[in-house]
Amino acid sequence: MARKKAKPRSGAKRAASGGRTGDAPDSRERLLRAAHLEFAAEGLRGARVDVIARRAKINKQLIYYHFGDKDGLYLAVLEHAYSEIRQKEHDLHLSNDEPVEAMRKLIGFTFDYDAEHREFVRLLINENILEARFVRRSKLIKQTSSPMLDLLRDTLKRGAAAGEFRGDIDPVQFYISMAALCFFYVGNVHTLSALFERDFNRPELLAERRKHVIDFVLGYLRPEEKVAAKTKRVAHDAARPGRGVAV
Predict the structure, then answer these.
(1) In the predicted model, what is the mean pLDDT of the chain?
(2) Cβ(104)–Cβ(129) under 8 Å?
(3) Which of 13, 57, 165, 215 could cysteine-pair with 9, CB 3.0–4.6 Å?
(4) On the CB side of 78, how many CA atoms lie within 13 Å of its CA?
(5) Would you give the end-to-end CA distance of the chain in angstroms?
(6) Taking the complete model, does pTM exceed 0.90, yes or no?
């Protein structure tokens, strides 16, 4: 009896499998990385699927196989980017540190992440141009924010109980302000460099800004009585003989 002829698979599945059952295990990750760079550089509308596929060294049909269309790929890139930074924040293990050290670590990490992942900064700028259209659609992105806020809330509470932090700080407002100090510098580094005639991308100026941001935020967290005591101590030291300002 003659064997039945097998039906051909769809074009997407055939390209995705490359003639085998299933595709390469890292194909989705490679597409996400390549798409992240393309969307960060060109935005959603300017990004080209052909360029993404070529950069990932993967058949273009795999994009449609994994993500449906370009919008689906863009949303997946956003979700992957947010999940990645939230996982790294979690890996700081802030609850294991004293409150001041935990906060110092978080601020430093945030600045370093923005400085070392410029494509992440550009991706968020582009999504804001779209008025967060895709972030609003994602349940995953919203879910990843909750554990970070819980950890931040706990750190602020522990710091207030120890007398190291003010007790009236809203964790959401705090995170926005802390993140903004890091994000603004990196996102505007070229215009700032042109305006002030300094190359703010130089390692020593990045390090200087990083220290300033950490000191600035920790200074805000400090209770008023500690600020007053420090101010009084500095004034007292300055008034001591031989400690005045030379003119």
Answers:
(1) 87
(2) no
(3) 13
(4) 26
(5) 108
(6) no
Domain ranges of the chain: 78-225
CB within 8 Å of 193: residues ≥ 6 apart? 199, 200, 201
Long-range contacts for 124-132 (Cβ within 8 Å, ≥24 apart)? 124/183, 125/187, 126/39, 126/40, 126/43, 126/44, 127/78, 129/43, 130/44
Structure tokens at 184: 């603004």
**What φ, ψ does residue 42 adopt, rounded to 5°?**
-115, -10
Neighbours of 148 (CB within 10 A): 17
CB 182 within 8 A of CB 213: yes
For residue 26, the model assigns a pLDDT of 85
Point out the residues of the chain with pLDDT beneath 70.
Answer: 1-25, 225-247
Residues 116, 203: contact at Cβ < 8 Å? Answer: no
Here the tokens at position 62 are 């795999």
Under a CB-based contact definition with an 8 Å cutoff, are residues 87 and 126 in contact? no
Angle between helices 171-187 and 99-116 (to 10 degrees): 30
CATH level 3 topology of 78-225:
Tetracycline Repressor; domain 2 (1.10.357)
Pick from 85, 16, 15, 27: which is nearest to 55 by CA?
27
pLDDT at 224: 83
Dump the DSSP string for 81-146.
Answer: HHHHHHHHHHTT-GGGS-HHHHHHHHHHHHHHHHHH-HHHHHHHHHHHHTTTHHHHH-HHHHHHHH
Give counts: helices (H), strands (E), the chain. Answer: 13, 0
